[in-house]
Design goal:
This protein is of the alpha+beta class and 270 residues long. It is built from 10 helices and 9 strands. 30% of the residues are buried. This is IclR family transcriptional regulator.
Length: 270
């Protein structure tokens, strides 16, 4: 077998893996309702027969589950098992949960933990606050490009300039999908403000009237890998309250960062 043939087979295999990963991510965006086949086809850009064949193969391996009553696809039990095993390595949820509870209790707003995955953020956890009116833009499993929503802004603000340039060089995709408030120029202006105060403010840019604030959490290498955020309606995020909310977010983000750096056995309160 020639080197060219080996390379060709490698590329073909990588393409299949990439398609499978994309389908799993698409299904994961609808953790409760599930994803219907037409939605998956539209989001993936693949043909209907190809999507169905891959979905059926994933279901046969337990990686997806098909609900015949609603004709929707859901993440399968094998992924749950894998996730439980992987949680021992990425156990930030246990560390972050008390911080989310404190944020929700002290502010009355819904508190969230998001993780950076490539050029996106994925919401991992949610703790509801006591205020009865809520924003539903953010929920477990939802993904946004970096620079969109407060968590993605908070993470993007502390990445190296070259990486920020690469991420924002998207040929206008963010602006087309999320509006003029997500142009590279607008995002860069927001990043400069975030670097000054330490936290991000999203003034209803994803959904009018739905505001959010976020603060980055750093891994042991000092890189922004997660973000805490608060979301709610506009009247709850007036300028006179933002400073207090930002301070609470930064306190909890720093607390988690310290624990990740020092380890639970060497946790410090200072």
């Amino acid at each position: 077998m020639t080197q060219k043939t080996v390379q060709h087979k490698t590329v073909q295999g990588a393409q299949v893996v990439g398609r499978i990963a994309d389908l799993l991510r698409i299904v994961a965006r609808a953790p409760e309702a599930g994803a219907a086949l037409p939605e998956i086809v539209a989001a993936s850009g693949l043909t209907r027969p190809t999507v169905y064949r891959l979905l059926a193969s994933l279901a046969a391996e337990g990686l997806l589950d098909h609900d015949g009553a609603t004709n929707t696809w859901h993440l399968g039990p094998e992924l749950y098992v894998m996730g439980a095993v992987a949680a021992n390595r990425y156990a930030i949820e246990d560390i972050a949960r008390p911080s989310l509870r404190r944020l929700a209790d002290e502010t009355g707003e819904s508190a969230f933990l998001s993780i950076r995955r490539g050029d996106e953020t994925v919401c991992l956890m949610r703790v509801e606050g006591s205020f009865p009116v809520r924003s539903f833009v953010l929920h477990e499993g939802v993904r946004f490009p970096l620079g969109v929503a407060s968590a993605g802004l908070a993470i993007l603000a502390f990445l190296p300039d070259a990486e920020v340039d690469r991420i924002l060089n998207d040929d206008g995709a963010r602006t087309a999908r999320f509006g003029p408030g997500h142009s590279p120029e607008s995002i860069r202006a927001n990043l400069r403000a975030i670097r000054e105060v330490g936290y991000a403010v999203n003034p209803g840019l994803v959904l009018e009237g739905s505001w959010g604030m976020g603060a980055a959490v750093f891994d042991r290498k000092g890189e922004p890998a997660w973000a805490l955020s608060l979301t709610g309606i506009e009247s709850r995020f007036r300028p006179e309250r933002q400073e207090a909310l930002g301070r609470l977010l930064l306190e909890e983000a720093h607390r988690i960062t310290r624990e990740l750096r020092d380890g639970p056995g060497r946790r410090r309160d200072s």
